[in-house]
User: Fold glycerol kinase from Equus asinus asinus.
Amino acid sequence: MLFNIHSLEWDKELCDFFEIPMDILPKVWSSSEIYGLMKAGALEGVPISGCLGDQSAALVGQMCFQEGQAKNTYGTGCFLLCNTGRKCVFSEHGLLTTVAYKLGRDKPVCYALEGSVAIAGAVVRWLRDNLGIIETTEEIEKLAKEVGTSYGCYFIPAFSGLYAPYWDPSARGLICGLTQFTNKCHIAFAALEAVCFQTREILDAMNHDCGIPLSHLQVDGGLTNNKVLMQLQADILHIPVIKSCMSETTALGAAMAAGAAEGVGVWSLEPEDLSTITIERFEPRIQATESNTRYSTWKKAVMKSMGWATTQSSENGDANIFSSLPLGFFVVSSMIMLIGARYISGVP
Assistant:
């Protein structure tokens, strides 16, 4: 929170405001250079040579080195990053601007736009643990494949509000469009479809902010093993979805950054070599008009899910108290860090 992403240095104005001495802050290094050597144990003498955040590491592991390339990691939630190159793009659609990587002290910095989906794989567990529609997480693919459609059923998994691009904590989950013919297969399909719709919302925001239409989406994470989901994603986005041969691209990206600093040269850092890590490619199978119609209907359902938490009665006071605990922990921990910094620096 004290780092200036433009100058790539600690921000003096912010440090002065929070009364944090700049000399107690660590030196800023790039993502890929030798920081030091291990001094003890079996790894004594081994260089420490790479440092990336998890989503930035996945971006590198997916070889998204060109401006306009994007990746999505499907886990409990979804985490999308779009490479904006050397331009620090500030979003007008609820996305976060971040430093993606800087692969060497003398290399240029690369920026990215980031958006998150709160509920992705978590909705599968919810169907299993809360509703009992499925017995195993793998079963959802079979159910969805049986019908191949939601039959007009739409699922908004806003269990704890909506993340990007809405940032609405008052939104709540919604299943709508039910008829007497709706069964668990349709609900399973709608749940997977919701993950794809949420991904499209963030990618649409990225396209508007960057001005570069996405030609394909690179994907990784545990949920990418669900082929129905991946085909749905290609249909909803109406662009190819490219699955990496390695699901743990976060670890791969960290290794690539470390290797680049050491000059190992095992992995290519050239964008044109993407084919070397591709295992599967999903092409759209429906017309763009059908995709757009389903997407616009889903967005209508999203609007209906918003504002629910603000209508709760005072009987839910205990729930409201518990929902505020994360913010309380954040405030308290921030105060402790500030007091600790002042103590270390000797400031009274």
